[in-house]
Amino acid sequence: MIESSLPPLLSASQAQALLEARTVGLGHQTISLDLGLSVTDVILGPEGVGLPGGIWLPWSQVERVLANPQAVFRVTPEARVEKVQIFSQTLNRLYTLMPTSGAPTMLISGIPMHRIKGTDPMADTRAKVRAAAPKGRVLDTCTGLGYTAILAARRSREVITIELDPAVIELCRLNPWSQELFRAANITQRIGDSFDIIEEFENASFDRVIHDPPMFNLAGHLYSTAYYRQLYRVLKRGGRLFHYIGDLRSKSGRNVARSAARRLQEVGFRVVKRRPEAFGLVAFK
Q1: Are residues 274 and 228 in the same domain?
Q2: Domain encompassing residue 42
Q3: How far apart are CA 123 and CA 126, in angstroms?
Q4: Within this chain, do residues 29 and 139 fall inside the same structural domain, yes or no?
Q5: Taking Cα atoms as reference points, which of 21, 20, 73, 74 lies closest to residue 43?
Q6: What proportions of the chain, in percent to the nearest 5, are helix, strand and coil?
Q7: CA angle 262-265-270, nearest 5°?
Q8: Fewest C-beta atoms under 10 Å: which of 104, 222, 225, 279?
Q9: pTM for the full model?
Q10: Are 77 and 123 part of one and the same domain?
Q11: Which residue, 85, 58, 89, 55, is CA-closest to 70?
């Protein structure tokens, strides 16, 4: 069932299903209004679709959703659709929720933050979390849509997750797949730059660190020797760091991985291993 605090959400796949059902005949139809997490009974009428809460969404609005396959739309109480996106005044970026075959991803000024070719965002996240093998106390350095923190929290005692931009957290509140980020008692959110916040944590205070930063050209300081030194400091002896890099088979991925591995070893990580299935590196203290 869709979260009561969230409006009905539609993407092109739901819009297409509704329009195809209309050609068969009017009446009741089962559709997802929370991007695939559950299904809801709606009514197909001559003028539009009857949604929960007494909203009748005109067919013209459903057609608008179909015409925008890279966007998620929320249905307003006025029976109109609006793209689920937020502009960040802090970083001058536009964050947009983008549908996939599974959980949605987030477009950062048009660039998806998850792997979506041949996979989906939740499968992408599961690969990262498997590589990190979370347990005990976990630091998630970059929250994003919260999928990493959510999956890690299911396998560990506590997760502290850090997000630079409050606008991203606003987008999470509109995403049904991110709701556990706000409900799980063992997830603590922090807002700010991981480069600064990590200095507040005590030595050897985390069993695992999952470091999934934006691309190097957006957050180069999170690939620096100074930051890696902090990651090493907060990890317990025997702890594990997963560092997302990107496709290790690509030229840019190989270059970033090579330089990152060298710096990780310089700060003290005894072993650094490539994990190409997770698009990253695993380092051990």
Answers
A1: yes
A2: 9-83
A3: 5
A4: no
A5: 21
A6: 35, 30, 35
A7: 145
A8: 225
A9: 0.93
A10: no
A11: 85
